[in-house]
Amino acid sequence: MKIKKWIISIASVLLFFSLQTAAFRVFPIGRSVPELLLIITVSYGLMRGEHDGILTGFFCGLLFDVFFMDILGFYALLYAFIGFVCGAANDLFRKDDIKLPLISILLSEIFFCLCRFFFLNVLLGNFNFRFFARDVLLPETAFTMLVSIGAYPLLLIVEEKIVNRQFIKKKEEGEGITDAL
Fold first, then answer.
1. I need a surface site. Which of 8, 34, 133, 171 has the fewest CB within 10 A?
2. What local confidence, expressed as pLDDT, does residue 139 receive?
């Protein structure tokens, strides 16, 4: 069960990373692409809890750091923190309600963009928040929310149908049905 969960997790992270960094770069909206790694981090945090949220976020951020940053660890820590916070809300999570995941993705995206603005712009002397809000924050948040409406239910279906799948078989003695992992 755990091996299948981690194989699905790694494949999902690699697929979302490829889509975010390659496929969506071909047709960006307003120079922004959806944060698919943020969507998967928030989703796994909500569905699986703090531990999986932190691990997924850390490896998503580390993957992004290795390929696109000069310093190692900035995005890894940021994604891990978001995964932890969303994983803490795991007790509030219900499969049939899409409002909590969408609100979590929205708030995480805004926090993520504001942290990026502060640590990657303000500390380097670029204080133009109006430009950042108009050309980065709003289009990226809108695009991420639009994609998350389709991506989150897909992740939920994969989680329920493949990862948490329980095979039911009848015992040979006729004692009834049992759950097998």
1. 171
2. 93
